[in-house]
Amino acid sequence: MVELESDISGGSDDYESESDIDQDSDSALQEAFAKGILKPGLNIQVPANDLPPPPINNVTALKLKLAKISNDFPWEERLDITTKPAVLAPELELQIREEEERAVKKKDKTALNEFRRETLFHQQAQAAVLEGIPKLNAAGIPTKRPGDSFAEMIKSDSQMERIRKSLIKKKLGMERAEFVKKMRTQKKIAKKVQTEAILKKHREKREFLNKVKQFKKGKLKDLDFLTEGSGQKKGRKGGKGRFKGPKLNKGKKGDKGSSKSGNKKQGKKKKN
């Protein structure tokens, strides 16, 4: 609250000082008017010494100065042409008439004036070309670019060479990055195919062993699973299949011996 009151009091002091200045200026004007210094009216008399000098139009000096600063260059250096507008083409003249009829109906000549102005510019340029091109041809100045010229190079050859090297460097960098990306993709695909092939091999082996077990247990009576896929595996070296046939247990050596000894014993018993 104290700060707010101080701000208000400060603002009132500024206002009082401005009003005091206005009162002082008014009192000074009143004193000057009372002494006769300030007289009624809007115009005041200026001493003769304060008047501007009369204008000087020295035609001779102006012509001498113009001749001094002017340069008589040939037309090939100036390329200035002053002509009247060319003859209007019949189709443009017909179009202007149509536009005039439309403007009369609409009571709005803004678009018509704009069209006339553009047509006048076109006629003026056409007349300048018809007069200027023969002059250029007579002076031996070419008016057409060569067939292999597309634009004038503003930059120097050294700068363009640096730009060319920079563009080639960027292009090679992009090609290298694209090649690395392509190789990574191919590597991922090859790894995926290899993994799938290994999984397929293990799966086929597991199925084959399961069928062998089923055959041993008597659940399967035919051995067709041994020849499955043989037509697809003929191209392998040696003409061998992917998996070798199952080694069926025909009995161990000890079992064979025991069976033979058992047969001998039976024979001895029969002899007895």
From TrEMBL:
UniProt biased composition (Basic residues): 233-251, 262-272
Entry GO CC: nuclear periphery; nucleolus; preribosome, large subunit precursor
Biological process annotations from GO: ribosomal large subunit biogenesis; rRNA processing
Biased composition (Acidic residues): 13-25
Primary localization class, coarse: nucleus
Keyword tRNA processing attached: no
Pfam families given in the database record: Ebp2 (PF05890)
Disordered: annotated span: 1-26, 223-272
Keyword set includes Coiled coil: yes
InterPro entries: Ebp2 (IPR008610)
Alphabetized UniProt keyword annotations: Coiled coil, Nucleus, Ribosome biogenesis
Cellular localisation: Nucleus, Nucleolus
Function: Required for the processing of the 27S pre-rRNA.
Family the UniProt entry places it in: Belongs to the EBP2 family.
Designated name of the protein: rRNA-processing protein EBP2
